[in-house]
Amino acid sequence: MAGAAKCFYGFVGFDCIATTGEEAKNPERNIPLAIVISLIIIFLAYFGISTVLTMALPYYLQDPEAPFPHLFESIEWHAIKWIVSIGAIFALCTSLLGAMFPLPRVLYAMSSDGIIYKKLQTVHPKTQTPVLATLLSGLLAAIMAALFNLQQLIDMMSIGTLLAYTIVAVSVLVLRYQSEELLGSSEVSVTVPEVIRQLVNRERHQAPTKLSSAVVKFSVCIFAVFVCGACGILVPAEDYINGDYPGVIAGLAILVALLVGLFVVISLQPTDKIKLTFKVPLVPLLPLISVFFNLYLMFQLDSGTWIRFSVWIVIGYFIYFSYGIRHSIEGERLLTNAELAASKANGIDNTGYDGASDMVDQKDPAKFQGAPMYVIANEST
């Protein structure tokens, strides 16, 4: 399974399709379709070459640093060896392009939303590309390549990608179980009996409420904590779990029962009925399974990767809490909606004022070119 966590790196890159929403035709349909098709092609390519490599040469005779050149050299196909070696150089260039293409656009979109520094949304007047974001991302990539070896970079890429996909799965759950009207709404006080009734949706609500959304969010957080606990037990003990260790088995059984219970609680909550071109199927089962396996694969990585990952997370938190949380456009929109809701509750008529649209009108529309990324993210829920 540790190898599976590292091999996950091979599937990284298809998500750059989601950053091209403003350049795609009919993105609501074509982007989800392109992601699925690209994943199928990637799987078939890796499965095919792995099968050929394994059947042509036993695994214990292979060279992990250069498997295909070593294979063709072993069977004395020297011309093919050089063709493959030259092709690998071109593949590196393709991989570099695939990695560097989406990153400046992601930084640009985050800067446009105020999450990171505004300077990163600077656009070149002639090429209309995010020049500062491109230069910064290229510089950081070069520094990382100079400081770490290939294995460390693969592990860091894998753990970061696994975390990102875990967050996406959690976001699908959160967005599916709340409606747009609940965003930015004021908190409501509830009693313990009301919470208990909501756990089984005794009132049979057909639309999300503030309480049902809170129940889902809390359940998802507890689910992630229990998954981490199960992985903390399972990963070190997976090679010797048997009848000689009843305590380990009992602990895992309890955690599995709790995870199933949380799945049932989430399944009983009302979902948002908004009609979208593409919606993730089998919610909440599929996102919860994704959370479990992503966290399990993350626990398979070594401690050095976790240390570097922790430093990375601390830097990200510093940027967010020192800048992003105070300049977020989405945060301003939610705050404005909350103020409007409070005003209506107090009998003040503000129906002629749309804080979100007014805020957008005061901005340069060109700065919101990254918005389709978030449209796509919402559509995928």
Number of extended strands: 0
How many helices does DSSP assign? 15
| Cα end-to-end separation | 29 Å
> How would you name the oligomeric state of the polypeptide chains in this document?
single chain
**Outline, from the CA principal axes?**
globular
How much of the polypeptide forms β-strand, as a percent range? Answer: under 5%
Report the average pLDDT across residues: 82
String of helices and strands: HHHHHHHHHHHHHHH
Uncertain runs: 352-381
Computed structural class: mainly alpha
Radius of gyration: 24 Å
Largest beta-sheet details: none
Helix content: 55-70%
Describe this structure in words.
This protein is 67% helix and 0% strand. With 381 residues, the protein is mainly alpha-helical. Among the domains are: 148-327, no CATH class; 334-368. Helix 3 (67-74) runs antiparallel to helix 4 (78-100), helix 5 (102-112) crosses helix 6 (131-147) and helix 7 (150-176) packs across helix 12 (303-327). The two termini are 29 Å apart. Residues 352-381 have low confidence and may be disordered. It is found in: Endomembrane system. Residues 278-328 form the Cationic amino acid transporter C-terminal domain. GO terms for molecular function: transmembrane transporter activity.
